[in-house]
Prior knowledge:
This protein is 35% helix and 42% strand. The chain is built from two helices and four strands. The chain has a four-stranded mixed beta sheet with strand order 1-3-4-2. It is elongated and about 50 Å long.
Amino acid sequence: MICVxxxxxxxGIITEYKGIVTGEVxxxxxxxxxxxxxxxxxxGGRSSGYEEELINARESALAxxxxxxxxxxxxxxxxxxxxxxVLGQGNMLMVSATGTAxxxxxx
Length: 107
């Protein structure tokens, strides 16, 4: 399924709007990754554990959004926006993907 951040597709014509679709994922970061990130914060450098969690959460949120779009009969999602939030004292990571499910045909 095509997912784009723009409201149009260069080689396609939107023939039908199916509605807004979302995908949300809330992930906890385990103790080992949290500990490793705290050390990286002290000595400097990138936290590969947190980066991996972000990547997995983003991909899961996009996949959920695409699945919901397909259930509506869409073959693309336009206007995609991805948001990241940290929730609560446990630093739970929430990633949400939102867009408009559409039916597209070739020009």
